[in-house]
């Protein structure tokens, strides 16, 4: 987006603040950071909400801005493909509207669509991307130029025109230099990729080195993206140790789908130098990535990853997996607009993978076929290779039930639930043995079918099961698909049919998701004496009962857990120490609020919150008793540890109102006295400024230590009382404190507070 858009964003925030729409003003400033920093759970909620508010307020540029950044959050680092195509096309249509087309960020819609098409099937959409990007006519004086050029180079590469891509990238960088502008790092990286594709790996490394100092459009992603590309270039150059040194670890790239294919290519190169450990764990991760792109509609990347993973599987002598990956690649070809690529047709590459798999001599089994189950059970769970066990157990699977259980569940563990389900299905369902099958086998097959997303098959199987197993299997399916009403109905039927604790858990969880905490707690209380009940079940019951204010059930749970309480009836209100409660903020982020734990699952917020929050000091909230962080191991760390918990719901608001104060910090003695005045009245106060906050001296202009924060007053205290107390408590300070919003609310000395704000630059 062009630089002017940021000036517009700042101006829009100011206008919204002045109009009293503080929450929206805060939110729009954080949306780009959410998209680039990977805070997608917040972005996916906040951006559509901003777009809707923008529509309601008649702010079309703001609507476009919100929709653009939401899309970038999806198709950028998350690399969504076909699942985002319709939204990307809609954004382009939106950008062409008369009231939006002049927005300086409008060209971003075309580049976002080009990126989405590249994610879906780069070569298949190459010509469309080139035409749309070329029609923009963006000049080097626009900050959109680098991103448009980057996408154009990418499209040329996908079209198999590597030399043209090199020439275009060099020309774009030169045009930017002539306009006294620097290319983005992303454009520099695109130039390096073009050189690598043209067979000029050394030049690619030189280009990448030159781009290192360029300013990135996405500063959060630059380090790991550069590391992956550098590693690939170095591996192609035959410098394996330098390549390994540059390659980001799996735990770094694991959250960034955009770099997965390039990272896998680098790994394949390094495997040839025996510089990486090619293990079953790597194969499992690659299969998860393949499945991700299947869900996101990243068709071309899915094929590429399957072929790379297949090559690595051949190197590991995992023949069965290489063949499965060849099947996956072949099945995905039909989703591509074009099956050709610069390295030859995909069909030829699949055939080559099959030939390589057929030539592999598989490792010998550790013992006779009849004893393999015993060997499997005796294997070291840490060092055993599940990929090899899949190959060794395959001849028995589908004939021998114990071997089938181990084989199919291991297939599911490695990411091939559909294959495991096929074997189990043939053995149990097609044979007609499902009606009398062991409950364990039904559970295994149900899990495999759910993982493989074979819902119709599962429903078909369920109709042939005994009543309890039928309802439990269908309940598990509905729970996995988040169909809570159906899950609750099946869970209830399963409990009635005697399906046990698992059915009670399923039923309770489903009704809780539907908002009926009282019923969920009652379901688990009915199972409180079950031998199958676990502490997690009891805590879940306590949380739901607390939200429903069913204190009798809460006490029944604490008794079962051996947790003593002081009171024996009525609401539980005890002092159980400090906790940190994690709550949502209007900008989609989270706030951690120090609170006093008052019960097994309740806490009273102790810190005043800024205006615009849905909660404040004095509010009583229900929290999930599952710790968000482990308790420190050392005694010293434990002493200062305040346990964090996630808020679940508001139980009872305290009715407190917060008021802002700001100004030069007083002396230590004055500040201590001020704190004592607030504490005596029971008015929570919290300083939000830190040591870096300063204000201007009204005459000399020198910087003075500053302080700002919020004071919360309960509902029985009026703002007039707070104003009077503040006035009395600060009248002898060397520098005055300002509380402008409060002064305006009570209409007392407003001009004085406005003068303080102006003179001290607050």
From TrEMBL:
Q: Which domain of life is it from?
A: Bacteria
Annotated InterPro entries: TPR-like_helical_dom_sf (IPR011990)
Name listed for the protein in its UniProt record: Tetratricopeptide repeat protein
Q: Which organism is it from?
A: Streptosporangium jomthongense
Q: What is the lineage of its organism?
A: Bacteria, Bacillati, Actinomycetota, Actinomycetes, Streptosporangiales
